[in-house]
Amino acid sequence: MHKNVSICVIGSGYVGLVAAVCFAEMGHHVNCVDNDEAKVKMLLAGGVPIYEEHLEEMLKKHLGHGVQFTTDLSAAVKASEAVFIAVGTPQGDTGAADLSYVEAVVSEIARAMNGYKVIVEKSTVPVYTNEWIRRVMHRHGVDAQSFDVVSNPEFLREGTAIGDFLHPDRIVVGANTERAAELLRRIYAPLTDGSYYAKASSLKGDLSATNPAKLLVTSAQSAEIIKHASNAFLALKISFINAVANLAESVDADIEDISAGIGLDSRIGPKFLRAGIGYGGSCFPKDVAAFHWVAQQQGVDFQLLDEVRKINERQKDIFFNKVRAALWTLRGKKLAALGLAFKRDTDDIRESPAIDVIRKFLDAGASVCAYDPAATERAQSVLPASKQMSYAEGIYEAAKDADALLILTDWAEFADLDLTKLNQALKFPIVVDGRNLYAPEKMAEQGFTYVSMGRPANYTTQQGKPQKMVLS
Fold first, then answer.
1. Is pTM beyond 0.70 here?
2. Per-residue pLDDT tens over the stretch 395-411
3. Rounded to whole angstroms, how far apart are CA atoms 217 and 219?
4. Catalytic residue among 8, 22, 32, 283
């Protein structure tokens, strides 16, 4: 039987809320702190502020006993052995992560200290943040022996965050003392010894009692770099395949075949090799910029990361030009946009390429009617409804009398459209697919002008035969 750990999680955003609920699921007692009283009130009532599979039901399962929510940071810290910092680290003007929220929280932790604590960086922070946290604690008069700072980066994907937390590829613990490392081992023991997976009530996934989670202990500095390097490498894979897609299209090759061929190499693997309109979200753009900034500060020439960013930005322009080429002119045209979130299975629109390209079409004089299964409400805060911008409650409502349909997010339901119904709804049967959800041959057979990413661009003649479209 494990000895449960009393945990304080500061911040109830994507990372903090998922961590708090999952620690409770693992058997620990968690106090989750947020300074937003309205959000805390919602959480205490069992509501969730984000769209995330399993989150709402798991919160209801543990609310009031495994996990509590409060605005009282001092009391939560005093009652805990481990304090996880999961506040925002937004990108500053220089590309560096803005650590002001982290600093403010550390100052409050210092004032609440009542014994030995392990302070855990759960937010994504640049290397040596652990040392700065230590300095802030010292400046507030906290004895060096009464705390340790640990880096425990999260590797969560929005939409599957609960599963990723409880069935992780790896758990990384960056601890510079054995005492701190041992507490983190205790926290994660239900996953690493398999006892959590042996329970009938456990969330099922890739791991099991006989194939438990793996925990890697490193220095705090190494753990901080692991997080930034992991996200930068995944962004690199996306930008790489998008650059290859542009080459493939120029020579009438098919990026879907190329991605399959590359992904079958076990050294590379198939994940993150999907051509499209670029990456977005709260992590990749921010972390690539922050990692590049850190390298510059250390005198390391890491221009590869700047190229990753530039390729990602160009993808939105490439998609815009495809739509313009398919319609000739954009002013006065009505476009149906499927997708607002930066990817499927989330309502997150932060750095969403879908939002960015919609803005481009609005600036070009087109009107847009958009539909997203989860992100409409959030999108309306940055793209308010207007004469040019409207929102639909369904796919075919958005498509009605549109000059073209644009697929901007890879929701599963967008890959299973009733093509006959879609053809009837559209003013012209034109589909520009930024996520390559359909086979060009199938779309041509159904009478569509179909344009996608990194594949030969075809349009359909009146005789139904695919013909090459020249894109400028």
1. yes
2. 999 999 999 999 999 99
3. 7
4. 283
